[in-house]
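Name: DNA-directed RNA polymerase II RPB7
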Amino acid sequence: MFFVIEQWHNVALRPAQLGRRYHQYVETLLRQQVEGKCLHNLGYIICVIRIVHMEAGRVQDGTGMVIVAARYQAITFKPFKDEVLDAVITDVNKLGLFAQCGPLKVFVSRASLPPSFVYQDDSAVGCMTDGEVELRVDSDIRLRLLGVRYDSMNLFAIATINESYLGPIHHSNLGTQSNAALFGGLGAASSDYVSPQSPSLHSPHSPAL
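Structure predicted for DNA-directed RNA polymerase II RPB7:
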């Protein structure tokens, strides 16, 4: 899913940018040009970690621009077919539902949902339900990718939740309960506890001082 890659990229500098801040300009332009872009063989570039190597700039004929070849290290997001991911539903309609997993946009068609789920548009926001569980906007689901398509700026995929261990994710609210709620019964029980009477410091049979 997430990878650290090294890649070459050419950065074009104007003559006015050749000075003491030369390296800073190269790094800034490199980040602006590659971060948030999607490459078919590398995936979606999340961020540039650092510049590993920078070659000497060469003047481009006819423009006067200085072309600098820089090798950078970056973190990328590259989903694969049959990969299982957690996503958040962003839209639900009669044809299926759309979900978002970071930069990846996923569509789950009606045929890829369990047969028990039907579309309901009674409320202001439509949802899929089987009578017990609802799939609506902002719900968390676990899905399996059936195919991935790359664009210059975005990632698109189709997925299914009609398999075992896929579908809505139910979060336990145990972590949100306060300690008082969790241990209130224990506190009540301890308050009703009566300790045995402690023995007197002076025994009735001990001689008087």
